[in-house]
Write a structure and sequence with these properties.
Spore Coat Polysaccharide Biosynthesis Protein SpsA, Chain A; about 35% helix; single chain; alpha/beta; 10-stranded mixed beta sheet; 10 helices
């Protein structure tokens, strides 16, 4: 059912835990596809000994090129993009499959719900500190508390773990390489799905992963993704998130509608045009 794409960059301890919990906690048929950026920390040697399809670059090629490259090897109907600093928890894929079966369409983008150790102001995550890395991961405590770490389904699916049908991945052309190494590439992919006619961007509150929070992004020279998004699409990411995706709102109906012509929406579109003019 799942083709699970994992880009990694010299994070062997994270990757090993990530893959171990996929194997332990995934119910439906799946394949793991890994792109190894550099791999000089032992990742390349380790992945070569696993029964896992992988691709390799001698330097970091970024998220966009990495996921596009490994996606060409996908054999299953659903593309799951997962970061190497995520730990899949029990029933994660069972809950995603349940949501898919109720939708009755392949035109969707789903996200699992992250449990993160630090509050970041993101209404779409659950905050709970169970460790900042594999060495400090309090997995037994997390599993004990998991029933109480709940959240209703929410609007605004954008970031990993994400699920789209392979036909939709191919339709929008995967991730846009002009956003390499990857800042705002998730947002751009979501906009491409919207422009292609998708109106279901649903976070599944019961499909949970623990997220150690972005070890790799601190090592890379970032692109100015927000500016690129604005220039490409003519609106700011915040306008898209607030009025189109309605990010963070409780999802009573999975299907989103066009933005309502409110004064706030009109003002945000005007600000977007002004910002684009001066970008």
């Amino acid at each position: 059912m799942w083709s699970i794409l994992i880009p990694t960059w010299n994070n062997l301890d994270l990757l090993q835990l990530c893959i171990a919990r996929i194997r332990q906690n995934t119910v439906h048929p799946y394949e793991i596809l890994v792109h190894v950026n550099e791999g000089s920390d032992g990742t390349l040697d380790w992945i070569s000994r696993q029964n896992i399809t992988f691709t390799h670059s001698t330097s970091n090629i970024g998220i966009c090129d990495a996921v596009n490259l490994i996606a060409t090897h996908a054999q299953y109907p659903y593309i799951v993009y997962l970061n190497d600093d995520m730990v899949c928890l029990p029933d994660w894929d069972k809950e995603l499959e349940k949501a898919i079966s109720l939708l009755g369409t392949d035109a969707f983008m789903l996200s699992g719900t992250m449990i993160e150790p630090v509050a970041s102001g993101n209404d779409c995550v659950i905050v709970g500190d169970y460790g900042r890395g594999p060495d400090s991961f309090r997995e037994a405590d997390l599993l004990r508390d998991l029933a109480s770490l709940s959240k209703p389904n929410w609007y605004g699916a954008t970031w990993p773990p994400t699920v789209v049908h392979k036909q939709w991945w191919d339709r929008v052309g995967g991730y846009s390489t002009e956003f390499s190494p990857g800042m705002s590439s998730d947002n751009d992919f979501t906009m491409k799905m919207w422009q292609a006619g998708c109106r279901i961007f649903l976070g599944i509150g019961s499909a949970r992963v623990y997220h150690f929070m972005s070890r790799s992004t601190g090592k890379v020279i970032k692109n100015d993704g927000r500016r690129q998004f604005l220039v490409k699409w003519g609106i700011t990411q915040s306008t898209f998130d607030r009025h189109f995706l309605r990010r963070g709102e409780i999802a009573h109906n999975p299907t989103l509608t066009e933005p309502k012509p409110t004064l706030q929406y009109g003002w945000d579109r005007l600000r977007s045009r002004l910002k684009r003019f001066f970008a």
